Amino acid sequence: MPLGLIALAMGAFGIGLTEFVIMGLLPEVARDFAVTEAAAGWLISGYALGVVAGALGLTAATIRLPRKPVLLGLVVLFIAGNVVTALAPDYGIAMTGRILAALSHGAFFGIGSVVAASLVAPEKRAGAIAIMFTGLTAANVLGVPFGTFLGQQFGWRSTFWVIAGIGILALVGIAALVPVAKDADEAISLRRELRAFRSMQVWLSLAVTVLAFGGMFGAFTYIAYTLTEVSGFTAGAVPWLLVLFGAGLVAGNWLGGRLADRRLDLTLIAFIAALVVVLIAFALLAGSQVATIVALVLMGALGFGTVPGLQSRVMDYADGAPTLASGANIGAFNIGNALGAWAGGVGISAGLGYTAPVWIGAVISGAGLVVMALAAVAARRARIAARPPRRAAPATTSTVPVPVV
């Protein structure tokens, strides 16, 4: 395994930690800035919007630059954003720091996916992307519980200082271990990158990302309420249950990457279909604690198991110009997050109960399954149409001697 993938995974770990750890620290942040928890929650929403903006804007702005220096610059921006957040004297400055860090998120994962894929043979691309995204899943399993504990014991700012330190380690690792691409001297055209969006398969892949992943995230956004109000777990058990969810993320990311390298579309269809089944079963059996634990692990595994394949698919159909399309797919993940969270909240507000986000997530992911199936059928037909026609067998010459008259 190329050591550069480990450095990229370290960067992904820090970025994943700064995105998710704030959820467990909202009460402390709200008290420190004397704002409501709802207002503190905008630090999550503002981050998500910053991810989408950075995934497209920064990726497009740096498209002509060599990828390794761009990655290093993005990590520096990430470090700066977390330092600003840790030092913030008021809520507005904290929001500024969150947005600065978020701008690096989408572009890092978009460009990092292209770099990770370039470090291995073409048939191992999804697996390489999965290794990089292991950092993001590990942030959920290990980083978020530890970061929450650290912030509760020593103040929420201490967590962001530690995250900034992780960013420095990632900066050193990428500088030392990620090689300069062989085509670093070749200018990358923004016009060529934009041409990737002429492909219907790119748009279908982005739609699958929004829907399939959005359905899972919508169910996950309100999972604490489902666990405590429906399944009967105590509030103190929720962090440890989320560790199980994170373990599912790690396993699904690894398995999904390996299988996608063999049969990409079939893997995505199978994972999304299984995710829909698990979400429906979860909604029906949420009153059982045992069934809830199993569903929680499977929901994480199947939901994140689609990530390497979805990222690889949009790059495959980008017609040799994968950088901007890759960044757009990272933005699509976050649009899906916002869609799922909004739809789940609508269900709760309508009085449908705390299993409503799970039911709604199943519907959204089911729509993603339909789009994925249509995309796979269209891709297969296009491959068949592109095959050269079979040549007719040459006529055989008779070897029977002709009598002389």
Shape: globular
- Cα-based radius of gyration, to the nearest Å: 24 Å
Integer average pLDDT: 83
The total count of strands amounts to: 0
Note down, in words, how this protein is organized:
The chain is an all-alpha fold and 405 residues long. The chain is 80% helix and 0% strand. The protein has 16 helices and no strands. α9 runs parallel beside α15 (322-349). It is globular, with a radius of gyration of 24 Å. The protein starts with a helix and ends in a 19-residue tail after the last helix.
Helices and strands in order, then pairings?
Blueprint lengths: L2 H18 L1 H12 L3 H25 L5 H21 L3 H28 L6 H30 L1 H22 L12 H6 L4 H22 L1 H8 L7 H23 L3 H22 L3 H17 L1 H10 L5 H28 L6 H31 L19
Task: Kindly summarize this structure in a few lines.
This protein is mainly alpha-helical. The chain is built from 16 helices and no strands.
Main attributes of the structure:
16 helices; 0% strand; disordered C terminus; 405 residues; mainly alpha
